Structures are given as C-alpha cells and as structure tokens.
Hints:
- The chain is of the alpha/beta class.
- The chain contains 9 helices and 11 strands.
- The strands form 3 sheets. The chain has a 6-stranded parallel β-sheet with strand order 5-4-1-9-10-11, sandwiched between helices. The protein has a 3-stranded antiparallel β-sheet with strand order 7-6-8.
- Helix 8 links the parallel strand 9 (176-180) and strand 10 (204-208).
- It binds ligand BV8.
- Ligand BV8 is lined by residues 15-17, 20-21, 26-29, 40, 43, 96-98, 114, 154-161, 181-183, 185-188, 208-210, 212, 225-226.
- It is found in: Cytoplasm.
- NAD(+) binds at residues 15-34, 96-99, 181-183, 208-210, 226.
- Its cofactor is Zn(2+).
Amino acid sequence: xxxxxxxxLIVVLTxxxxxxxxxxxxxxxxGGLWEGHRVEDVATPEAFARNPALVQRFYNLRxxxxxxxxxxxxxxxxxxxxxxREWPGEVLxxxxxxxxxxxxxxxxxxxxxxxxxxxxxCLACNDSMPWSEDLSPEAVCPSCGGKGGLRPDIVWFGxxxxxxxxxxxxxxxxxxxxxxxxxGQVYPAAGFVEVVRESGExxxxxxxxEPSATRSRFSEHRSGAAGELVPALVD
Length: 235
Ligand code: BV8
C-alpha cells in the first residue's frame, strides 16, 4: 500500500470471487444456477415460504462445505487481515459473502451485510444465534422455548442488508475504497462505489477476474485472481 500515502479509513467490499480460490462456488460462475434453480429464485423469502425444505437444503449444502477442512482462507483473505494489523488507520471489510473465511484469516473489523451461513434466525422472536449444523424445518428456537422455527440468518433478495447505516457512514469517510471479487450486479453493494465518488476524491480500485458491471465507475481496475493481486496490493 506504499502508493497511498495516507492513514485514513480503508473500506474493502468483497464478493464471492475472493472465496473462489478457497473452493467455494461463486454465484455467476455456474451461470447463477444451483441444481437448475436461479439463485435469485432460491434466496428469497417467497421461496422459503413456498418450499422451505428446498431452501434449507441449498444452505445446508453450503454450510457443510464450510465444515470441509479443504475449505480454508486463501492468500487474499490473509492479506486483508494483515492490512488490518499493519495499516496505521482503520480498515473495514464489508463482505457480501456468508462464509466465515475472513474471520478465520484474522479479520476483526468486519460486516457481513448479507448475513452468515453459520448463524440461524428465529421466525418467531427474530433472535440470531450461531448454527453450524444442518437446519431442518423441525429445528426450533432455544431462545423462545420452541415457539418459532429457524431460518438461515441470510439476507435474501428483497430483504434489507445488515448494518447499512454503518456502511454508508464509512463509505462517505473513507480515504480508499477497494472492491474485490464481485460482479457488481447485486444492489445496494454494487452502488457503494458511487457513494464513495459522491463523497470526495478517494481512489476506488476494483480487483476482479474480469471487469465488473460497474467497472467504469472505478478509478482503477486490476484484472486477475484475488489470491495474487490482493497480497501484491497490500505489499
Ligand atoms: C434490497 C445472500 C431493498 C444469499 C445475497 C433491479 C435492478 C436493480 C436492483 C434490483 C432489481 N430488482 C431487485 C433489486 C434489488 C436486489 C438486486 O440487486 N437484485 C439483482 C439480482 C438485480 N437486491 C436486493 O434484493 C437486496 N435487498 O435491495 O432491499 C429493501 C429496501 C427497504 C426495505 C427492505 C428491502 C438484497 C441483496 C442480497 C441478496 N443476498 N446473498 C446467499 O448468499 O445465498 S446476494 C448474493 O450475490 C451473494 O451475497 C453474493 O455475494 C452476491 C453478489 O454476487 P457476487 O459476490 O458479486 O458474486 P458473483 O458470482 O456475481 O461474482 C463473483 C465475481 O468474482 C465475478 O465477477 C468473477 O469474475 C470474480 N471472480 C471469480 N473468481 C475470482 C474472481 N475475482 C478474483 N479472483 C478470483 N479468483
């Protein structure tokens, strides 16, 4: 980060591409399909109401993947954790991802704006709790005495992402904005670069295998694998 002589706030947005080299499938890599279903058709409250077993299976399979010892943080996750340790200013990672690879790499200042695969939400009392096993329609909430069923604590399409006030506050204050491994197709995350541009002169850098849908809004684009380009940038 020698090229950026500042100790200001760095905001880093990450998407599924940063976890691809850890073996986790991206959304659009498989053409946005899972077992023939469009993700946008499975990751919705309507899909869960219509066919809870299908939606639970979608997340149980992905949760089980996280338990696979072969799925580990990669060099990009580790470089961001090092940046947080070594940067003189604050570093905030805002991830669209629901995996726990940033935490396992050592990142502390982290917002999961789309929720977390390893947490469940009670349909009755709205309590969120750690949950690493399979979720079934029969699972009941321990907080409200079994009155409510449990859903994945995931932000579905049509639902409000988490901690948006904190995210927008950081975007308007940041001295540098990095976007890593996202196709820029899902809002409001895809609009974050605009918030930064409207707030001042902070450089905005996109690191992605290919130009994203919002590439033209970034001051710089670096094409390539996050596992190579993020450590190189942090150095
Ligand atoms: C909301 C949890 C309002 C689920 C997810 C029409 C136009 C514009 C917007 C909308 C519209 N209709 C509806 C909307 C809004 C909608 C939206 O944006 N839809 C899109 C599809 C058009 N958004 C919402 O509904 C959001 N909520 O707007 O609420 C509101 C207001 C008031 C009150 C209530 C509500 C909620 C969106 C959140 C949905 N949940 N995730 C789950 O994970 O199962 S989104 C899902 O997509 C994931 O979180 C994923 O991370 C995210 C974005 O995808 P990416 O991360 O970018 O992944 P993708 O595969 O697309 O791209 C990966 C990239 O990495 C690729 O470019 C690839 O080239 C690159 N790559 C691959 N390998 C590597 C790499 N790069 C570097 N290195 C590598 N090795």
